[in-house]
């Protein structure tokens, strides 16, 4: 029995467009691109902003669905046109002569002519005391989370 501890080979793949982030925006962008016959690789590390929400509301055609369901359908639609969706994290993007080098977790890389950044937003809620003084109520429900976001973009930031 051999005891090799060789580092697994790192892969470098080429594509027309590397999409960073594979949630609603990234997958929608990827779908348009694959329909235009571009080779597309989406990289997503699975932490969408609405991760705490069990159901989506007000999203036409998917009222009450789980966010993960929309993402799964979106991935299938992109893949149906030949797009690829990878689980992983983009660590860096560097400009090169003919495009971009996109470094991925795991030591792999993409060489892409274009990069579409769809990494979403991260909520940075202020401390509870600051919220209270600005009249913001913190809650785990989607509705009040979004209301809180609007309020915090003003004086409470
Ligand atoms: C609690 C809550 C409830 C919500 N409920 C609703 C609702 O009911 N209806 C509605 O219409 N909207 C709702 N929203 C808003 C909705 O979630 C956002 O509008 C939507 O998620 C934005 O999509 P996005 O693709 O721009 O970003 P996100 O969904 O945040 O996706 C960004 C993706 O990029 C990935 N990513 C980030 N950095 C990297 C990286 N370096 N490498 C690889 N991947 C990366 C993340 O893992 C993530 O999957 C809700 C939001 C919140 C916070």
Automatic annotation (TrEMBL):
Its EC number is 1.8.1.9. The chain crosses the membrane at residues 17-34. InterPro entries: FAD/NAD-bd_sf. SUPFAM superfamilies: FAD/NAD(P)-binding domain. It is an enzyme of class 1 (oxidoreductase). Keywords: Membrane, Oxidoreductase, Transmembrane, Transmembrane helix. Gene3D superfamilies: FAD/NAD(P)-binding domain. GO terms for molecular function: thioredoxin-disulfide reductase (NADPH) activity. The keyword Translocase does not apply. This is Thioredoxin reductase.
